[in-house]
Specification:
It is a single chain. This protein has helices spanning 16-37, 80-88, 101-117, 123-143, 148-167, 171-178, 185-203, 208-219, 230-233, 241-247, 250-261, 269-274, 295-309, 321-330, 337-347, 349-352, and strands spanning 42-46, 54-56, 60-64, 67-72, 76-78, 93-97. With 355 residues, the protein is mainly α. It binds fe (ii) ion (FE2) (2 copies).
Length: 355
Amino acid sequence: MNSPLSDFSFKFGANWPILLSESTVFLLMTIIENTAVATDKYMPIYLEALRLDTVIDFDLYIKIGRDLILYRAQNLPFTEKTRDNLLENNVESLFVPTSEQEQYQKYIESNINTIITDEHIPEQKKAGIVYDSSKMLVKDVLSNPTLGKNIQRSKAMVEATVGYILRKEDSFHNILRVMSFDYYTYTHSVNVCTFSVAFAQFLGFDDEEFLNHLGNGALLHDVGKAKISDRILNKRSKLTSLEMELIKKHPAWGLEMMQKADILHEDSFYPIIQHHERENSSGYPHAIGTQDLHISGKIVGIADTFDAITTQRVYQPAVETYPALQRMISEKGLFDRDLIEKFAFLMGPTNTGKI
Ligand SMILES: [Fe+2]
Ligand SMILES: [Fe+2]
Protein backbone atom coordinates (compact mmCIF):
# COMPACT_ATOMS: atom_id res chain seq x y z
CA MET A 1 0.00 0.00 0.00
CA ASN A 2 1.51 3.33 -1.05
CA SER A 3 -0.84 5.55 0.87
CA PRO A 4 0.78 8.06 3.24
CA LEU A 5 -1.37 6.40 5.89
CA SER A 6 0.14 2.99 5.16
CA ASP A 7 2.44 2.88 8.17
CA PHE A 8 -0.44 2.99 10.60
CA SER A 9 -3.21 1.67 8.38
CA PHE A 10 -3.58 -1.33 10.65
CA LYS A 11 -5.61 0.93 12.87
CA PHE A 12 -8.22 1.41 10.16
CA GLY A 13 -10.37 -1.01 8.23
CA ALA A 14 -10.30 -0.95 4.42
CA ASN A 15 -13.82 0.48 4.51
CA TRP A 16 -12.88 3.55 6.54
CA PRO A 17 -13.40 6.09 3.73
CA ILE A 18 -16.83 4.57 3.05
CA LEU A 19 -17.82 4.91 6.69
CA LEU A 20 -16.68 8.51 6.71
CA SER A 21 -18.64 9.45 3.63
CA GLU A 22 -21.74 8.05 5.33
CA SER A 23 -21.04 10.30 8.29
CA THR A 24 -20.74 13.26 5.95
CA VAL A 25 -24.12 12.42 4.43
CA PHE A 26 -25.58 12.36 7.95
CA LEU A 27 -24.12 15.77 8.72
CA LEU A 28 -25.48 17.16 5.47
CA MET A 29 -28.93 15.79 6.28
CA THR A 30 -28.83 17.50 9.66
CA ILE A 31 -28.00 20.81 8.09
CA ILE A 32 -30.67 20.52 5.42
CA GLU A 33 -33.35 19.66 7.98
CA ASN A 34 -32.43 22.69 10.02
CA THR A 35 -32.34 25.12 7.14
CA ALA A 36 -35.59 23.73 5.77
CA VAL A 37 -37.51 24.98 8.80
CA ALA A 38 -35.46 28.04 9.61
CA THR A 39 -36.25 31.35 8.04
CA ASP A 40 -34.50 34.68 8.48
CA LYS A 41 -37.04 35.67 11.09
CA TYR A 42 -37.19 32.62 13.36
CA MET A 43 -34.67 30.15 14.66
CA PRO A 44 -35.39 26.60 15.82
CA ILE A 45 -34.59 25.71 19.44
CA TYR A 46 -34.84 22.49 21.43
CA LEU A 47 -37.70 22.07 23.86
CA GLU A 48 -35.15 20.57 26.29
CA ALA A 49 -33.29 23.89 26.41
CA LEU A 50 -36.17 25.40 28.39
CA ARG A 51 -35.90 24.91 32.15
CA LEU A 52 -38.99 24.26 34.22
CA ASP A 53 -40.24 27.11 36.40
CA THR A 54 -38.07 29.75 34.77
CA VAL A 55 -39.49 32.90 33.26
CA ILE A 56 -38.95 32.89 29.52
CA ASP A 57 -38.28 36.41 28.28
CA PHE A 58 -38.71 35.60 24.60
CA ASP A 59 -41.69 34.54 22.49
CA LEU A 60 -42.14 30.87 21.66
CA TYR A 61 -43.57 29.74 18.36
CA ILE A 62 -44.55 26.27 17.20
CA LYS A 63 -44.85 24.97 13.67
CA ILE A 64 -48.26 23.82 12.56
CA GLY A 65 -48.32 22.64 8.98
CA ARG A 66 -46.24 25.20 7.15
CA ASP A 67 -46.98 28.02 9.55
CA LEU A 68 -45.30 29.25 12.69
CA ILE A 69 -47.82 30.10 15.39
CA LEU A 70 -47.19 32.10 18.56
CA TYR A 71 -47.52 29.55 21.37
CA ARG A 72 -46.42 31.50 24.41
CA ALA A 73 -45.69 35.19 24.72
CA GLN A 74 -42.55 36.35 26.54
CA ASN A 75 -42.28 36.95 30.29
CA LEU A 76 -44.44 33.97 31.24
CA PRO A 77 -43.10 31.11 33.36
CA PHE A 78 -42.36 27.82 31.62
CA THR A 79 -44.08 25.21 33.76
CA GLU A 80 -44.33 21.44 33.81
CA LYS A 81 -47.85 21.81 32.48
CA THR A 82 -46.61 23.85 29.51
CA ARG A 83 -43.97 21.26 28.71
CA ASP A 84 -46.32 18.28 29.09
CA ASN A 85 -48.80 19.99 26.84
CA LEU A 86 -46.16 20.37 24.13
CA LEU A 87 -44.94 16.79 24.55
CA GLU A 88 -48.50 15.41 24.38
CA ASN A 89 -48.81 17.14 21.03
CA ASN A 90 -45.45 15.74 19.87
CA VAL A 91 -43.89 19.20 19.64
CA GLU A 92 -40.14 18.81 19.98
CA SER A 93 -38.95 21.92 18.20
CA LEU A 94 -39.88 25.43 19.06
CA PHE A 95 -38.99 28.66 17.35
CA VAL A 96 -37.80 31.99 18.69
CA PRO A 97 -37.88 35.21 16.64
CA THR A 98 -34.33 36.13 15.61
CA SER A 99 -35.08 39.65 16.90
CA GLU A 100 -35.16 38.06 20.39
CA GLN A 101 -32.04 35.97 19.88
CA GLU A 102 -30.09 38.00 22.45
CA GLN A 103 -32.58 37.18 25.24
CA TYR A 104 -32.57 33.50 24.25
CA GLN A 105 -28.76 33.41 24.19
CA LYS A 106 -28.53 34.98 27.66
CA TYR A 107 -31.10 32.51 28.95
CA ILE A 108 -29.11 29.53 27.64
CA GLU A 109 -25.80 30.87 28.96
CA SER A 110 -27.19 31.28 32.45
CA ASN A 111 -28.71 27.79 32.40
CA ILE A 112 -26.02 25.89 30.48
CA ASN A 113 -24.61 24.03 33.47
CA THR A 114 -27.99 22.70 34.56
CA ILE A 115 -28.74 21.70 30.96
CA ILE A 116 -25.56 19.65 30.52
CA THR A 117 -25.97 17.87 33.84
CA ASP A 118 -29.68 17.11 33.37
CA GLU A 119 -30.00 13.33 33.07
CA HIS A 120 -33.39 13.66 31.40
CA ILE A 121 -32.02 15.41 28.32
CA PRO A 122 -30.72 13.05 25.61
CA GLU A 123 -26.97 13.52 25.05
CA GLN A 124 -27.49 14.34 21.37
CA LYS A 125 -29.76 17.26 22.24
CA LYS A 126 -27.35 18.55 24.88
CA ALA A 127 -24.62 18.53 22.24
CA GLY A 128 -26.89 20.51 19.90
CA ILE A 129 -27.67 23.09 22.59
CA VAL A 130 -23.99 23.51 23.60
CA TYR A 131 -22.81 23.76 19.99
CA ASP A 132 -25.52 26.14 18.74
CA SER A 133 -25.23 28.51 21.68
CA SER A 134 -21.43 28.50 21.46
CA LYS A 135 -21.74 29.60 17.83
CA MET A 136 -24.12 32.41 18.69
CA LEU A 137 -21.87 33.54 21.51
CA VAL A 138 -18.71 33.58 19.35
CA LYS A 139 -20.59 35.56 16.71
CA ASP A 140 -21.17 38.22 19.39
CA VAL A 141 -17.59 38.02 20.65
CA LEU A 142 -16.05 38.45 17.22
CA SER A 143 -18.22 41.47 16.49
CA ASN A 144 -16.75 43.16 19.57
CA PRO A 145 -13.70 41.11 20.57
CA THR A 146 -12.13 43.50 23.02
CA LEU A 147 -15.26 43.88 25.14
CA GLY A 148 -14.33 42.34 28.50
CA LYS A 149 -17.87 41.11 29.09
CA ASN A 150 -17.77 39.13 25.84
CA ILE A 151 -14.46 37.45 26.70
CA GLN A 152 -15.86 36.57 30.14
CA ARG A 153 -18.92 35.02 28.47
CA SER A 154 -16.74 32.93 26.17
CA LYS A 155 -14.72 31.72 29.17
CA ALA A 156 -17.90 30.51 30.87
CA MET A 157 -19.02 28.76 27.69
CA VAL A 158 -15.64 27.04 27.23
CA GLU A 159 -15.85 25.79 30.81
CA ALA A 160 -19.29 24.35 30.09
CA THR A 161 -18.04 22.74 26.85
CA VAL A 162 -15.00 21.22 28.60
CA GLY A 163 -17.27 19.96 31.39
CA TYR A 164 -19.60 18.45 28.80
CA ILE A 165 -16.78 16.74 26.86
CA LEU A 166 -15.22 15.34 30.05
CA ARG A 167 -18.50 14.01 31.45
CA LYS A 168 -19.12 11.17 29.04
CA GLU A 169 -16.92 9.18 26.71
CA ASP A 170 -18.96 9.78 23.57
CA SER A 171 -19.69 13.49 24.16
CA PHE A 172 -17.25 14.61 21.46
CA HIS A 173 -18.91 12.36 18.90
CA ASN A 174 -22.31 13.67 19.90
CA ILE A 175 -21.05 17.17 19.11
CA LEU A 176 -19.53 15.90 15.83
CA ARG A 177 -22.99 14.79 14.76
CA VAL A 178 -24.44 18.29 15.14
CA MET A 179 -21.46 20.27 13.84
CA SER A 180 -21.76 22.41 10.74
CA PHE A 181 -18.95 23.14 8.33
CA ASP A 182 -19.61 26.52 6.79
CA TYR A 183 -17.22 29.35 6.11
CA TYR A 184 -18.18 31.60 9.00
CA THR A 185 -15.33 32.46 11.35
CA TYR A 186 -17.58 31.84 14.37
CA THR A 187 -18.40 28.29 13.22
CA HIS A 188 -14.71 27.66 12.55
CA SER A 189 -13.80 28.99 16.01
CA VAL A 190 -16.25 26.71 17.80
CA ASN A 191 -15.15 23.71 15.70
CA VAL A 192 -11.45 24.35 16.42
CA CYS A 193 -12.22 24.69 20.14
CA THR A 194 -14.22 21.44 20.17
CA PHE A 195 -11.61 19.49 18.18
CA SER A 196 -8.78 20.85 20.35
CA VAL A 197 -10.36 20.03 23.71
CA ALA A 198 -11.48 16.57 22.57
CA PHE A 199 -8.05 15.88 21.06
CA ALA A 200 -6.21 16.98 24.21
CA GLN A 201 -8.44 14.77 26.32
CA PHE A 202 -7.80 11.90 23.89
CA LEU A 203 -4.05 12.50 24.36
CA GLY A 204 -4.48 12.05 28.09
CA PHE A 205 -4.73 15.66 29.31
CA ASP A 206 -7.54 15.49 31.82
CA ASP A 207 -6.76 18.49 34.01
CA GLU A 208 -9.78 20.78 33.67
CA GLU A 209 -7.75 23.93 34.14
CA PHE A 210 -5.36 22.98 31.33
CA LEU A 211 -8.30 22.12 29.06
CA ASN A 212 -10.05 25.41 29.88
CA HIS A 213 -6.97 27.45 29.00
CA LEU A 214 -6.50 25.47 25.81
CA GLY A 215 -10.20 25.82 24.92
CA ASN A 216 -10.23 29.58 25.51
CA GLY A 217 -7.20 30.08 23.28
CA ALA A 218 -8.65 27.76 20.62
CA LEU A 219 -12.01 29.53 20.63
CA LEU A 220 -10.33 32.91 20.17
CA HIS A 221 -7.39 31.75 18.01
CA ASP A 222 -8.47 33.87 15.02
CA VAL A 223 -9.70 36.87 17.01
CA GLY A 224 -7.03 39.03 15.34
CA LYS A 225 -8.86 38.59 12.03
CA ALA A 226 -11.40 41.09 13.33
CA LYS A 227 -8.90 43.74 12.18
CA ILE A 228 -8.86 42.42 8.59
CA SER A 229 -11.61 43.30 6.10
CA ASP A 230 -14.00 40.62 4.83
CA ARG A 231 -12.96 41.61 1.31
CA ILE A 232 -9.48 40.21 1.98
CA LEU A 233 -10.59 37.30 4.18
CA ASN A 234 -13.06 36.04 1.58
CA LYS A 235 -11.17 37.00 -1.58
CA ARG A 236 -11.64 34.44 -4.37
CA SER A 237 -8.55 35.34 -6.34
CA LYS A 238 -4.95 35.04 -5.23
CA LEU A 239 -3.95 37.41 -2.44
CA THR A 240 -1.39 40.10 -3.24
CA SER A 241 1.82 39.97 -1.22
CA LEU A 242 0.63 43.00 0.75
CA GLU A 243 -2.68 41.28 1.58
CA MET A 244 -0.78 38.15 2.56
CA GLU A 245 1.36 40.22 4.92
CA LEU A 246 -1.81 41.55 6.56
CA ILE A 247 -3.24 38.04 6.98
CA LYS A 248 -0.03 36.90 8.61
CA LYS A 249 -0.43 39.57 11.24
CA HIS A 250 -3.64 38.12 12.75
CA PRO A 251 -1.94 35.88 15.37
CA ALA A 252 0.07 38.82 16.76
CA TRP A 253 -2.93 41.16 16.59
CA GLY A 254 -5.04 38.59 18.41
CA LEU A 255 -2.41 38.19 21.11
CA GLU A 256 -2.13 41.95 21.53
CA MET A 257 -5.92 42.30 21.88
CA MET A 258 -6.17 39.53 24.46
CA GLN A 259 -3.16 40.76 26.45
CA LYS A 260 -4.70 44.22 26.57
CA ALA A 261 -8.07 42.83 27.72
CA ASP A 262 -6.21 40.98 30.50
CA ILE A 263 -8.94 38.40 31.11
CA LEU A 264 -7.53 35.16 29.70
CA HIS A 265 -4.87 33.12 31.47
CA GLU A 266 -1.50 33.48 29.75
CA ASP A 267 -1.52 29.79 28.78
CA SER A 268 -4.45 30.64 26.50
CA PHE A 269 -2.11 32.83 24.46
CA TYR A 270 -0.17 29.88 22.96
CA PRO A 271 -2.96 28.78 20.61
CA ILE A 272 -3.53 32.37 19.49
CA ILE A 273 0.10 33.21 18.65
CA GLN A 274 1.28 29.72 17.57
CA HIS A 275 -1.54 28.14 15.53
CA HIS A 276 0.16 28.97 12.21
CA GLU A 277 3.65 27.98 13.36
CA ARG A 278 4.93 24.65 12.03
CA GLU A 279 7.35 21.95 13.24
CA ASN A 280 9.91 22.74 10.52
CA SER A 281 9.84 26.51 11.21
CA SER A 282 7.97 27.23 7.96
CA GLY A 283 5.05 28.90 9.71
CA TYR A 284 4.29 32.42 10.92
CA PRO A 285 4.49 34.93 12.57
CA HIS A 286 7.84 34.01 14.18
CA ALA A 287 8.85 30.88 12.20
CA ILE A 288 9.60 29.05 15.43
CA GLY A 289 10.12 25.27 15.27
CA THR A 290 9.27 22.15 17.17
CA GLN A 291 11.46 22.88 20.20
CA ASP A 292 9.70 26.21 20.86
CA LEU A 293 6.17 25.10 20.14
CA HIS A 294 3.90 24.69 23.15
CA ILE A 295 1.68 21.58 23.17
CA SER A 296 -1.41 23.86 23.03
CA GLY A 297 0.00 25.56 19.92
CA LYS A 298 0.60 22.17 18.28
CA ILE A 299 -2.88 20.87 19.11
CA VAL A 300 -4.68 23.97 17.87
CA GLY A 301 -2.46 24.09 14.75
CA ILE A 302 -3.71 20.62 13.80
CA ALA A 303 -7.36 21.32 14.70
CA ASP A 304 -7.28 24.63 12.80
CA THR A 305 -5.80 23.13 9.63
CA PHE A 306 -8.17 20.16 9.70
CA ASP A 307 -11.26 22.36 10.04
CA ALA A 308 -10.02 24.77 7.36
CA ILE A 309 -9.45 21.96 4.83
CA THR A 310 -12.75 20.19 5.54
CA THR A 311 -14.80 23.38 5.30
CA GLN A 312 -16.02 24.94 2.11
CA ARG A 313 -14.55 28.38 1.53
CA VAL A 314 -15.26 30.92 -1.17
CA TYR A 315 -11.82 30.15 -2.58
CA GLN A 316 -11.78 26.35 -2.12
CA PRO A 317 -14.19 23.40 -2.04
CA ALA A 318 -14.42 21.28 1.12
CA VAL A 319 -12.23 18.18 1.34
CA GLU A 320 -13.61 15.07 3.08
CA THR A 321 -12.17 13.82 6.37
CA TYR A 322 -10.06 10.96 5.01
CA PRO A 323 -8.25 12.85 2.21
CA ALA A 324 -7.84 15.87 4.50
CA LEU A 325 -5.99 13.74 7.08
CA GLN A 326 -3.99 12.07 4.31
CA ARG A 327 -2.91 15.47 3.06
CA MET A 328 -1.91 16.66 6.52
CA ILE A 329 0.12 13.52 7.16
CA SER A 330 1.80 13.46 3.77
CA GLU A 331 3.08 17.04 4.06
CA LYS A 332 6.09 16.07 6.12
CA GLY A 333 7.53 18.45 8.66
CA LEU A 334 4.46 20.59 9.20
CA PHE A 335 2.91 18.75 12.13
CA ASP A 336 4.23 16.59 14.93
CA ARG A 337 4.16 13.08 13.43
CA ASP A 338 2.95 11.36 16.58
CA LEU A 339 0.24 13.95 17.21
CA ILE A 340 -1.16 13.99 13.68
CA GLU A 341 -1.40 10.20 13.64
CA LYS A 342 -3.25 10.26 16.95
CA PHE A 343 -5.57 12.97 15.63
CA ALA A 344 -6.34 10.77 12.61
CA PHE A 345 -7.10 7.96 15.02
CA LEU A 346 -9.48 10.17 16.99
CA MET A 347 -11.32 11.11 13.80
CA GLY A 348 -11.18 7.56 12.42
CA PRO A 349 -13.80 4.81 12.31
CA THR A 350 -12.90 3.29 15.66
CA ASN A 351 -14.31 6.42 17.20
CA THR A 352 -16.75 7.63 14.55
CA GLY A 353 -18.07 4.20 13.56
CA LYS A 354 -21.38 4.90 15.25
CA ILE A 355 -22.00 8.02 13.20
FE1 LIG B 1 -5.53 31.72 11.91
FE1 LIG C 1 -8.30 29.46 12.11
